[in-house]
């Protein structure tokens, strides 16, 4: 699984001119799922997201987590995070999981993250044409990959 996490002051996702999900201060996360991903990947990434200390404390240092800040999360499925651009100019998405594998993992990710966040994670719609709007706070943008745990 791959994540792109952006610390935001606000974010929303619109589908067919209707706002599907909207948050204030927190994270807007893009989630890409591979065929080989498992519950272990979900556990590791959701724990890292909730513990990530990138919010300012009272002294202005990035020392607090989303839990400390009582922040919100907007999660968007994003198969293009697994694009391979090694050969030619047209990306290959062979590593991205097909919907029959990805949707159950996506739903488990949402449930696990909501449980750890202690509030419901807002989402788009898996596979839909979505318009994502955000105000990146900082900017702070962090990438994580459960197969390359740096």
Write structural notes for this entry:
There is one protein chain. It contains 3 helices and 8 strands, in the order E-E-E-H-E-E-H-E-H-E-E. By secondary structure, it is an alpha/beta fold. The chain has a single domain, classed as D-tyrosyl-trna(Tyr) Deacylase, Chain: A (3-Layer(bba) Sandwich), CATH 3.50.80. Strands 1, 2, 3, 6, 7 and 8 form a 6-stranded mixed beta sheet that branches. Strands 4-5 form a two-stranded antiparallel ribbon. Helix 1 packs parallel to helix 3. The chain starts with a strand and ends in a 5-residue tail after the last strand. The mean pLDDT is 95. One of its GO terms (biological process) is D-amino acid catabolic process. Homodimer.
Secondary structure category: alpha/beta
Distance between the ends? 13 Å
What is the 3D shape?
A: globular
Rg from C-alpha positions?
Answer: 15 Å
CATH class designation = Alpha Beta
Q: Strand count, sense and closure of the main sheet?
A: 6 strands, mixed
């Amino acid at each position: 699984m791959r994540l792109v996490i952006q610390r935001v002051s606000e974010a929303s996702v619109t589908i067919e001119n209707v706002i599907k999900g909207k948050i204030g201060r927190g994270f807007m996360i893009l989630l890409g799922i591979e065929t080989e991903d498992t519950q272990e990947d979900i556990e590791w990434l959701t724990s890292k997201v909730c513990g990530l200390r990138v919010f300012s404390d009272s002294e202005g240092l990035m020392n607090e987590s989303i839990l400390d800040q009582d922040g919100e999360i907007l999660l968007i499925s994003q198969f293009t995070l697994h694009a391979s651009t090694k050969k030619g100019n047209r990306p290959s998405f062979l590593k991205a999981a097909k919907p029959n594998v990805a949707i159950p993992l996506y739903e488990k990710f949402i449930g696990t993250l909501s449980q750890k966040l202690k509030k419901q994670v807002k989402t788009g719609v898996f596979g839909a044409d979505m318009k994502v709007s955000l105000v990146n706070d900082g900017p702070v943008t962090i990438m994580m990959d459960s197969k390359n745990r740096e």
